Amino acid sequence: MDFINEIANLKTSEIGILLTETKALIETNTALISFNKEHPNLGYGIIKDISEVQNINCYVNYRIKKSGTKIGDFTIGNDSYSDEYFISSYSYSQIFGYLPSDDWTAVLQLSEASSLSESGIYETSVVEIGTTRLIDSKGFEKDYPRYREVTQEDLDKYYQVNELVSQQNELNHLINMSINRITERLS
Questions:
Q1: For the chain, which residues make up each domain, given as ranges?
Q2: Selection from 167, 154, 158 nearest residue 36 by Cα
């Protein structure tokens, strides 16, 4: 379409302007197609909205055991532990130190990079990922909020995907602007 510049007065004519706008549309659409091929599965990971990330300061009470296979009233094997911990609020006593309290309780799923060696105070960033049902030592079920620990890698992925989505939106905007200019010239 470089011939537009070579033909006298064509560049400023209606046809020249339409051809220039069409060229811009084609180039931007090609860039968008290329972008979508390079990034086929844009997914934010565990963070959907950065405002959902919370900093919590909690007491880690214990690591939650995985339940075995239940057949009738019997549970068969599997005494392994999950990557989830029962957490709660805590209070401080001058005699006993930090103690868990029942004001707030939840389940925390640690990231693969984290591990805890004992119960106690733990501070981390989390996102709520739903609820989970636990059975206490007396056999009663209760639903608890479930949190997933957020790592720097999770935050980096969120910001990277956010930037890619922004680029994609800009390409879509440029395509729409080109189409609007062409439509206006044709009407």
A1: 3-43+155-186, 54-149
A2: 167
